[in-house]
Amino acid sequence: EVQLVESGGGLVQPGGSLRLSCAASGFTFSSYAMSWVRQAPGKGLEWVSAISGSGGSTYYADSVKGRFTISRDNSKNTLYLQMNSLRAEDTAVYYCAKESVVRGVIYYMDVWGKGTTVTVSS
Amino acid sequence: SSELTQDPAVSVALGQTVRITCQGDSLRSYYASWYQQKPGQAPVLVIYGKNNRPSGIPDRFSGSSSGNTASLTITGAQAEDEADYYCNSRDSSGNHPEVVFGGGTKLTVL
After folding, report:
1. N or C: lower Cβ tally within 10 Å for chain B?
2. Cβ contacts (< 8 Å) between A95 and chain B: which residues?
3. φ, ψ at B28 (rounded to 5°)
4. Measured between beta carbons, which residues in chain B are less than 8 angstroms from residue A47?
5. B79: which residues sit within 8 A by CB, 6+ positions away?
6. What is the number of other CB atoms lying within 10 angstroms of the CB of residue B103?
């Protein structure tokens, strides 16, 4: 069964740090790009960051650039998101998602984890 | 980066057909994908590409696109289709590739 399981969320003070993990199983992890997507309470989905299958290319939303770092360990089938300088507006459920691209124009996220909750508050 | 625009809310009578739209410049270069999200649950992919359904998605869900607009159509809406629906696509209009989501459409089945 293809599965993604996030962990590492919690309560952190503004300015603090947190590292999220996403354990993947049921597919060849290194063959797929992965993304982090977040959803603030009562709000819509917001793409946060993506990483290529090899880990050699990374991409970030402007809202997190310079504060968050995405990485992966293909030997452990695990995706990470290091979050520094956290702000109240980073409070959200964070989902990891498996990406697929077909012929360069068909892009989709076909597998999602259940999410992990990050709360930034004093 | 570009944006994707969706109507905030749409309603449909049980058994009728409803279309949810998504507009944005990135859709001129990339197909939209569509996600269903029910309260307290993770999003689920329902349509991708020109009109492709993942395994397990009922065939009452279909997709189409024209120019800068993508549409998700539910033919014969069921009570269990009541959910939030999001479109997304890749966006290469900026200095680096990004991913964009629409603001979401809350579908109410009456």
Report:
1. C
2. 42-43
3. -80, -20
4. 88, 98-101
5. B14, B109
6. 17
Q: What is the pLDDT of residues A37-87, one digit of tens each?
A: 999 999 999 999 999 999 999 999 999 999 999 999 999 999 999 999 999
Q: Counting one residue from A and one from B, how many pairs have CB atoms under 8 Å apart?
A: 74
Check whether B59 has a pLDDT greater than 70: yes
Tokens matching residue B70: 């993508």
Supply the pLDDT for residue A76.
98
> Within 10 Å of residue B70's Cβ, how many Cβ atoms?
28
* pLDDT of res. A12: 98
- Among B14, B27, B105, which residue's Cα sits nearest to residue B64? B27
DSSP string, B33-53: EEEEE-TTS--EEEEBTTTB-
Rg (CA), chain A: 14
Sign of CA dihedral B20, B24, B30, B34: negative
Rounded CA separation B91/B96 (Å)? 9
